[in-house]
Amino acid sequence: VNEWYWNNTGPQSTQEVFSASKSFTNVLAGIASDDGDLEVEDRASKWIPEWVGTPSEDVTVEELLNNTSGRYQDFESDYIRMAAQAVDKTAFSIELEQQYDPGTTWVYNNAAIQTLEAVISGASGEDVAELAQERLFEPLGMSHSGWARDRAGNPMTFMGVQSTCRDMARFGLMALNK
User: Fold this and answer.
1) Within a 10 A sphere around the Cβ of 174, how many other Cβ atoms?
2) How far is residue 167's CA from residue 165's CA, in Å, rounded to a whole number?
3) What is the spatial distance between Cα 146 and Cα 12, in angstroms, rounded to a whole number?
4) DSSP track, 48-110
5) Which residues touch 112 (CB under 8 Å, ≥6 apart)?
6) Is residue 82 within 8 Å of 111, Cβ to Cβ?
7) What are phi and psi of 161, to 5 degrees?
8) Confidence band for 140, pLDDT divided at 50, 70 and 90
9) Distance between alpha carbon 121 and the CA centroid of its chain, in Å?
10) Rounded to whole angstroms, how far apart are CA atoms 47 and 169?
11) What angle do CA 119, 172, 117 make, to 5 degrees?
């Protein structure tokens, strides 16, 4: 086994892990489920009241987690308006419309994953980044990892984890060992 780094980085150098953050978001939803705070079959509108009485009311937590929510997605809204420009990425994502019936269409959707910030924090009563620190990073010894926030202060559940290669390996080993 060899380990080497490039571009003036080393074992403690953190970087954005982009969409691998979605795996952390899924694990946090699992922790909230194990704690009895939510069930994946629950409607997300239980924690996103803006969806009550709209076509999004029946979207489940599971559909958000597995990209079958049917929430609106196109390149401009997902990668430019939400990911790059929105100050409050959670509010922007919640405000998007329903594009397809829940559970009928798979679409890779960053904004749908960002709505899980409201679901997980609402269900657990904890800030997502603080929950990750307490229940994932610290127990796994991921001492160089953290969770980035948008300009409104919300943890970015679609891409926010900052980590090192070694810390990511710890997360991967946890998943490998179930």
Assistant:
1) 14
2) 6
3) 13
4) -GGGTTSTTTT-BHHHHHTT-S-B---HIIIIIIIIII-SSHHHHHHHSPB-S-TTS-----H
5) 64, 67, 69, 71, 73, 93
6) yes
7) -75, 130
8) very high
9) 11
10) 32
11) 10
What distance in Å separates the CA atoms of residue 120 and residue 37, rounded to the nearest whole number?
A: 9
- What are the angstrom distances between the C-alpha of 75 and each of 83, 88, 151? 10, 18, 21
What region does 163 belong to: left with phi over 0, alpha with psi -120 to 50, or beta? beta
* 48-77 pLDDT, tens digit each: 999 999 999 999 999 999 999 999 999 999
Nearest-angstrom CA–CA distance, 88 and 12: 30
Residue 74 to residue 99: CA distance in whole angstroms: 10
Burial of 86 (0-12, 13-18, 19+ CB in 10 A): buried
Residue 111, exposed/middle/buried by CB under 10 A (0-12, 13-18, 19+)? Answer: buried
Taking the CB of residue 137, how many other CB atoms lie within 10 A of it? 23
pTM, two decimal places: 0.95
